[in-house]
């Protein structure tokens, strides 16, 4: 275990700690890209054990706990809660009861292995991104497994740039129990190992695999186990914005509001400010239906981009505004005391108070060229005095544009 985490412990623990728990009946209930964001264990639906398993795994990652200690610490809790041995459980998707394997030493070993290995892979990928300026290539190395898979041996010796699409699907682990590794190398070593700019691309053959749980047919690279054809670290960085916004958009109103509040209150906002990624954004507030209808648009949620966040904070540093002020101001976007349509009729000025401070926010409605849908974006925020807020409200009342 010490060898597993010695390379990038902070990156590894950050990846695992940020996962949300999602109970499932079958591992196929979670799509591959969602595994980069969610922690799940099959057959936990209906049992109050998922957080117990997550907490023990988080401790194992953080404190380099070996498997035997992990097993001995967790087993009594699972047995006490009835998640142990074989039992009859009802599949929530089909409603059909079945005899299933719950907890067991073998299952705990699989859970431990899968989660520590993917956390390690995500941490290594983050370190790879940090070092790619002087180590711009990745070498697929021979597995240390006693009984290696022939398909995985076929990947050994492949040398490709860090950003090559091959690593989106073939960055190890590439299946249950896979012990393959990669090594980040310099351009000089890559050339010495035979890499050249005009070399042939590795042949990746995709095969159809039908997910019997969802009924969907998925393309899986030959030699990669279903559910493992994804780079956990790259998926997390690449898809965090679309993942969150898609999931939030699919929630009913009250749950959408709760989810957005959780996002704003989580470390994600701070992370987006401190380590911005181009194109990244977060949903920060639902758009009230009456306000959307006033502009003839569909209600959705307000987004905040990393570029806008940095600009707004940096622009107002001389005023002593902090990221904490920003978080406070975002609560006004979720529940404004008053809203005034912009002269362009493409957005609103929001007015409100949070934590004893008065705020004026500008939210703009933009049409997505590709989808044709209206997207709402936070464009700016300003501290105001009560006198200034009252003056803006009186003017809007006089003009007949004030919405409450």
Automatic annotation (TrEMBL):
Q: Which residues form the Phage head morphogenesis domain?
A: 52-182
State the Pfam families in the record: Phage_Mu_F
InterPro entries named among the record's database cross-references: Phage_head_morphogenesis_dom
Q: Which domain of life is it from?
A: Bacteria
Q: What is this protein called?
A: Phage Mu protein F like protein
